[in-house]
Amino acid sequence: MCHDCNDPIHSRRDFLKLSSLLGAGAALLPLLTSLQARAAAEPDAPVRIGYLPITDATPLLVAHNNGLFEAEGIQSERPVLLRSWAQVIEAFISGQVNVIHLLSPMTVWARFASKVPAKVVAWNHVGGSGLTVAPGISEVKQLGGQSVAIPFWYSIHNVVVQQVFRDSGLTPVSKPAGSAIAANEVNLVVLPPSDMPPALATKRIAGYIVAEPFNALAENLQVGRIQRFTGDVWRNHACCVVFMHEHDLNNRPEWSQKVVNAIVKAQLWTREHRAEAAQLLSKDGANRYTPHAPEVLRRVLAPEAAERAQYLASGAIQHQAWDDRRIDFQPYPFPSYTEELVRRLKDTVIEGDKGFLASLDPQQAARELVDDRFVRNSLAAVGGLKAFGLPDSFDRTEEIRV
């Protein structure tokens, strides 16, 4: 990923830039003006995907690679690989791209802190992340007095890892470099995912929590071990979601429906062709969507059965009965998840001004953030949630157990 941004300073600047853009300030106005101008000048714009090269982007990239947008009767351009979340947001708000995958908590920030006119239309995947620690660490409490990296403050990784810390008697904090860290504290630092394995190897951090394949990469490089999968803490949680402009949803409903149709079909295809998906996403694939080796991606998308047994033995998986995949795919954005996410964000340590969260009602947020019209239609066309191995109901109860 971001081969030219592998330093913590970049991460800090990235967050500050996003804080400026999404803090309901004047910095957002020029981008929204550009978005409106692009929409007026190009009412029939093709699908333009913006993505980071992580497994979270899988359905969008599979849909492009397999010609699923064209099969729906709409045009698509080659997806645009972006180097940071700030670039993803900026390209999206300015209209350079019109379909993105975004960290689910980041959509809450964008929608309610700065009123970005966009909505979640589907989930991109579930699970697909883990807490990786130095080889000598066997218990979470051993992280006390040390630093652990997260990919972003507004991420499900930050929400989950703080719950894991608290359940182990540790207090998550955010302290400047060089500050003393108490034995019962864990200092959270933001790093680009690509910088996490080398930072762990050189002992700059004691662990990190992030999307795949960077957990698998640490395993392959033998610089870290999986302490816990996030999907084993919050069952079938969303990580990245599909975010689209309201002007497309309202003014191009047929086009929007076809976009979502293609993404849903890509998820189904990926579930049935996991090893093939790993190959096409890899640096050896025809489109070279990511810089990752196929064997690293296969470890995530198509792991050997023996690996699950090892994770059960180590405690990385503690809820065997959940029978969850390392990463899985289903598109429906369950309201209960968004509601619980908003509740938990209120109590999560986040740098910057998060005052907007205090008055945010979870149920109202779920209604305003998500537009599930299109994904419901797409699901109906492929056999409903049952096609993804789920009960045929749009209601569920969130299961969160550390």
UniProtKB/TrEMBL annotation:
**ATP-binding keyword on record:** no
* InterPro entries given in the database record: NrtA/CpmA_ABC-bd_dom, TAT_signal, TAT_signal_bac_arc
Which UniProt keyword terms apply here? Cell inner membrane, Cell membrane, Membrane, Signal, Transport
- Identify the domain of life: Bacteria
Task: Give the location in the cell.
Answer: Endomembrane system
Which CDD domains would you find in this protein's record?
A: PBP2_NrtA_CpmA_like (cd13553)
Homology family = Belongs to the CmpA/NrtA family.
Protein name per the record? ABC transporter substrate-binding protein
Species per Swiss-Prot/TrEMBL record:
Geopseudomonas aromaticivorans
Q: What is the lineage of its organism?
A: Bacteria, Pseudomonadati, Pseudomonadota, Gammaproteobacteria, Pseudomonadales
